[in-house]
Amino acid sequence: MTVPALTAETRWRCTLCGNLTRFDVTRTARVVEYLHFDLAGDSKVEETEVLAETVESVRCRWCNAVDQVELVDRPGAEAEAAEQA
Ligand SMILES: [Zn+2]
């Protein structure tokens, strides 16, 4: 089972336990980071540009199910759609 991609109107829901809020997400990303070093040599990332990103797996923090998520509407998504119609 693959992980469905999130959109502005949807969120993940664990199909086994109904969890909506807590997931461990394994992702690969290709990013450009602007590192700002201080005089001591410690660095901070001040800007991040994501060039490409893939979600590999999503594990539910409640029941540990892996990749058992479905897309459901976010609260208010239906109301907004009705307003725009
Ligand atoms: Zn779950």
Automatic annotation (TrEMBL):
This is Uncharacterized protein. The lineage of its organism: Bacteria, Bacillati, Actinomycetota, Actinomycetes, Kitasatosporales. It comes from Kitasatospora indigofera.
